[in-house]
Amino acid sequence: MALIRIDGDSLVVVIEGLDKLWAFKGGMTIPLANVRGATADPGIAAEPKGVRAPGSHVPGVIIAGTFHQDGEKVFWDVKDPSKAVVVELAGEKYARLVLQVDDPRATVALVENALV
Amino acid sequence: MRAAVGLFGERAYDGVSVDDLVSHLGVHRNSLYKTFGSKRGLYLIALRRHLTDDVRPLCDALAGASDAADALRLVTSADLNLLLLAAIERAPVDEEVASDVAAALAAVDQAIAGALGVPGDLAAALTAAALGILLRGNPDNAATALTQHVGLLT
Asked: How far is residue A77 CA from its own chain's centroid?
């Protein structure tokens, strides 16, 4: 589970609970200028994710950590694909974040409204 | 991009999933995100494509309309699905969509006003009526009744 909030000119992502262990991350702060958008995408978990390192993947249970695909790094923290949100970044270590959030619709609105 | 215009023009925004976009547009999910940033980013580009491909030619045609009946016929026979859905569904919650929709409708008004030599507010009323007739689906009788009355006013 991830908590996403807007703090001034930044997007703050906090990885909660045990996922923190799997994902080796407490959280990250990203300037909004480097955030291109957010999309609710329940289908993304069914796609090939590339090579995982570092992180953890117990199939069907949790997808967490850094995945390398097509020369891009993608950060995953998803247990329930129906609640996955994709945050596309530019000029950051990660090309995109795929995060499980409590309310995908509200999260997408929060991020998109912050970008307008 | 025409496939995206078609998809967003026939279904509610929330009814178009990224899976739908990936399969209909024939692009990889990662490149979709890389290119457009988000579903909304893709939607905005599809909407603008629709305005360029469908609404602008309508305005060009309207500029040559001979009378109110001709203008109504042009509007009610145009493909305005995405514009109408955007006006109803996305404009109230998305400022950029709202501003694109307002500009497109203003261009339609202006084309009608110019062609018929009527004031802007009457042109806007004609556009509003034409879109209403388009939404109701069986335009003939309503359009005829309206143009008879408009004919009396102009």
From this structure: 6
